[in-house]
Amino acid sequence: xxxxxxxxxxxxxxxxxxxxxxxxxxxxxxxxxxxxxxxxxxxxxxxxxxxxxxxxxxxxxxxxxxxxxxxxxxxxxxxxxxxxxxxxxxxxxxxxxxxxxxxxxxxxxxxxxxxxxxxxxxxxxxxxxxxxxxxxxxxxxxxxxxxxxxxxxxxxxxxxxxxxxxxxxxxxxxxxxxxxxxxxxxxxxxxxxxxxxxxxxxxxxxxxxxxxxxxxxxxxxxxxxxxxxxxxxxxxxxxxxxxxxxxxxxxxxxxxxxxxxxxxxxxxxxxxxxxxxxxxxxxxxxxxxxxxxxxxxxxxxxxxxxxxxxxxxxxxxxxxxxxxxxxxxxxxxxxxxxxxxxxxxxxxxxxxxxxxxxxxxxxxxxxxxxxxxxxxxxxxxxxxxxxxxxxxxxxxxxxxxxxxxxxxxxxxxxxxxxxxxxxxxxxxxxxxxxxxxxxxxxxxx
Length: 445
Fold this sequence. Notes:
Distance between the termini: 72 Å
Helix content: 25-40%
Radius of gyration: 22 Å
Number of strands: 13
Strand content: 15-25%
Order of helices and strands: HHHEHEEEHEHEHEHEHHEEHEHEEH
CATH architecture of the domain at 106-231 and 427-444: 3-Layer(aba) Sandwich
Largest sheet: 6 strands, mixed
CATH superfamily of the domain at 106-231 and 427-444: NAD(P)-binding Rossmann-like Domain
């Protein structure tokens, strides 16, 4: 092989594997580790790509030395991906549920828990979607006093949270723990400005008097309730594809297996994965995990959340409970899920098998999903085009592909694969679209 061709091949391989390492490398740094960039830390990859292993065995040193140029080769590509994602346009999907509020603006939107992974994405969504508010206030305990530069709202000083401050906003987005939200969300809701609270935690999802909302499915009046619950990220991503199918063909059974990114455990989980890959590249060893139950780099963990008495985990049962509530399903519609943590940075994927009451043709379902809001069909096997978390990262739409007739359920069965950004459709974006609908209703009054 010619030297130039060899170098070219090495660069291509390095770019591909480097990107894989970047996205696989961010789920492992303990709670004390610094928070990492939400779209991957190219600086981290670049820094450890140039390091020489210390106190490593000859085999480890050789392995790390071989890995370093691969990682370095991926830096340029990963930086390009970051720039592309950072140019995310709020209008990139003509079908997106963007609300045009020409009638005016509200005075303030508050984000409680603004320094976390979801809170940061909430601010980015407000900016990208040109949310109709005069200002944004940020609330966080540890980050109080920090100044955040917003491209739309200017310099924002992070404040300590109080109920009184929350009630000075027409909308409050909650990116906090369930316990915190359970205590304070009801206190914020209503008040002198009739504040709308949209909670991303699980505190209110299963309460009969609190709407659980995916705005493209059951928004509208539900989005205008004083307190609205955001669904679990896994549910929200899968529901975007399942809902149009259910409307036309009526679901009977849903079998789901998930491949959930480290971002599901927050910034700490992403950092732990990055730190684990970095340590392996420099020493040949992965540190003991602090965020996850087991090592995540180069591994998968078939447990997310606590085990329940029926043998399923709480994360798996959330899919059952939440799809039933959001879709209004009868008890005879059966839903089962196996949730698995995988070593990717962000964006969850799901393999879904369904049985319906009416027969389906895969081409008809593909055409149906192409018209669905918040869904992008990526399904060209001939060109190896299908949903992947790498491509779904930073995107508003949920990608759907691998659409095919089920060998188990025949013409009333279908199998497909979805990928969606856990921090966007699975959390921040969903909450912001709910807020858009609530504000549109408020401005109509």
